[in-house]
Design a protein that fits this description.
The protein is α+β, with helices and mostly antiparallel strands. It has 2 domains: 11-240, Glutamine Phosphoribosylpyrophosphate, subunit 1, domain 1, CATH 3.60.20; 259-445, Rossmann fold. It contains 15 helices and 23 strands. A 7-stranded antiparallel β-sheet has the order 3-2-4-1-10-9-11. It binds iron/sulfur cluster.
Length: 467
């Protein structure tokens, strides 16, 4: 699908209560564009729901949109982790309910989506129009018993298995819900003239606001006309925050658990430097996601950090899976290398999935004159696919399932190649095996895989079919 990105994030969601809420929500979607580039949508409420969504980047989707009036709005950027890439699957999703209409923006992946779809159809006569698991959550809220949103959300949560950070627009209120694992992020922010919820706090800065705190795992948080108010909790379970948010997905200027992601990535790079030092003249990062870790590696090893690769920010995207020759051409369009005349270079990248993106980058650095190239990776080897909302690759495509680090070095054309350890990563992100999802590095998934789960999950886990 997308051009040279190794890992595709799932979705970005935002909710705003403020005068001119929809314009602010759409502005905030720009800050969350990295979390989903296939479609965008927004809905506002001023007594009735106004909804606009379409395929494309935020700029294109909202270029000629009529004003969405009201002081309550939500927005959604989507990359499909379930359902295909067509406009019918674009979010957010609206459903009528006996409590009034609800609009749902969802970041995550529901594992038992296929089973739920059949059950909702057979039991309640509710048929999803799309293949999106986000619509199923909206249908669950419609089918749910209960006279309050909290009761309905709890009922929804008792049926939906998987990861979800949700924002609901329900009349004159926004409701943020984070699954009990806290797998995907969700934050509360203060705006000059209101409040906001968003996948990442970087959206608040763009709106002139400030982050207040993370929504906690299992928390239901309502924003009403008075301000934010606790609205209940979901059944607790083990926490499993996605380690990949720190490594790659979240923007460096986002705050997660009170720390800027950039600082966490520096700490990861420092740990990588302590674990895998090497004699070299220069440390460079693969921009942009390898840069913070490269700085940390430089700090820990005392080797100078420098610019080596320059990113061309104007290269367009493609939605076809490129063949290797095309991928190499795209990498050359995307990156240029500064002269490295005879230097021994440490090249820091965030992760290796298939190894096919890194190989042309190593070639570029070699052609720029590097005499040695030592690759250091700010993630442990990726050995298992993700089924909680991050699209990486099927198991058979993951290079770490086929070769060891020496084999990877040979594959990408480097003189050496090493990854940070799982324990080193945990130390840098200040997580534990009990509160962090590490499944793509360890194969130990935080949710049990059960037979009633959807085909898509079985496929993801066995790597039998590419999503
Ligand atoms: S499997 Fe990996 S990418 Fe998926 S949620 Fe867990 S840590 Fe994140």
């Amino acid at each position: 699908m997308s051009s040279t990105r190794k890992v595709r994030d799932e979705c970005g969601v935002i909710g705003v209560h403020s005068p001119d809420a929809a314009n602010l929500a759409i502005l905030g979607l720009h800050a969350l564009q990295h979390r989903g580039q296939e479609s965008a949508g927004a809905a506002s409420f001023d007594g009735v729901i106004h909804l606009h969504k379409a395929m494309g980047l935020v700029d294109a989707v909202f270029a000629e949109t009529p004003h969405l009036p009201g002081s309550w709005a939500i927005g959604h950027n989507r990359y499909s982790t379930s359902g295909s890439s067509t406009s019918i699957n674009a979010g957010p999703f609206m459903q009528p309910t006996s409590l009034g209409p609800v609009v749902v923006a969802h970041n995550g992946n529901i594992l038992n989506a296929a089973v739920l779809a059949g059950w909702l159809r057979d039991t309640y006569g509710l048929v999803a129009e799309s293949a999106s698991d986000s619509e199923l959550l909206a249908l669950l809220l419609r089918a749910a018993p209960g006279d309050t949103w909290t009761e309905r959300i709890r009922w929804m949560a008792s049926h939906a298995r998987g990861s979800y950070s949700l924002i609901l627009l329900a009349g004159e209120r926004l409701i943020g819900v984070r699954d009990p694992m806290g797998n995907r992020p969700l934050a509360l922010g203060r705006l000059r003239d209101g409040w906001a919820l968003a996948s990442e706090s970087c959206a608040f800065s763009l709106l002139g606001g400030t982050p207040v705190r993370d929504v906690q795992p299992g928390e239901i948080l309502e924003i009403n006309a008075v301000g934010p108010a606790p609205a209940g909790r979901l059944e607790p379970t083990r926490h499993a925050f996605c380690a990949f948010e720190y490594i790659y997905i979240a923007r460096p200027d986002t705050m997660l658990a009170g720390r800027a992601v950039h600082s966490v990535r520096r700490a990861i790079g420092e740990q990588l430097g302590r674990e895998h030092p090497v004699l070299a003249d220069l440390v460079i990062g693969v921009p942009d996601s390898g840069t913070s870790a490269a700085l940390g590696y430089s700090t820990a090893t005392g080797l100078p950090f420098g610019e080596g690769l320059i990113k061309n920010r104007y290269v367009g995207r493609t939605f076809i899976q490129p063949a290797q020759a095309e991928r190499e051409r795209l990498i050359r369009m995307k990156f240029g290398a500064l002269p490295l005349g005879g230097k021994r270079v440490v090249l820091v990248d965030d992760s290796i999935v298939r190894g096919n993106t890194l190989r042309p980058i190593v070639t570029l650095v070699r052609e720029a004159g590097a005499s040695e190239i030592h690759v250091r990776i700010a993630a442990p080897p990726i050995t298992d696919p993700c089924y909680l909302g991050v699209d990486m690759a099927q198991r058979g495509e993951l290079i770490a399932t086929r070769v060891d680090e020496a084999g990877m070095a040979a594959h990408v054309g480097a003189d050496s190649l090493h990854h940070i350890s799982v324990d080193g990563l945990l130390e840098a992100i200040r997580g534990t095996r009990g509160d962090t999802c590490l499944a793509c590095f360890t194969g130990q998934y935080p949710l049990r895989l059960e037979s009633e789960q959807s085909e898509a999950v079985a496929e993801a886990v066995t790597g039998a079919v590419q999503r």
